[in-house]
Amino acid sequence: MGGGEEQDLLRRRGIMCAEVCDATCRVLSEQNSQDEAGIRAQLEWCVTVCLETAHVFDRHPGAEQAADACRTCAKACGEFTAVLD
Length: 85
Fold this sequence. Notes:
Blueprint: H1 3-29, H2 36-58, H3 64-84
Helix pairs in contact: 1-2, 2-3
């Protein structure tokens, strides 16, 4: 993958991760919007997307802070999922 293509991937993944995290926050803040299964699915999706995005950021020097933010979000979602168990 060329430099421009790799930068596009990085940008797309970052945007997708931010959108998934935002959607997850909205689901968690709406008290009666979804049942537990729906909340669990949203949290698991967020963990997956965040970790995949962190791996993409890991390949790019200077993106360490973004990778750490993705892992922090994935960890928080994982911990919340554990509370549901």
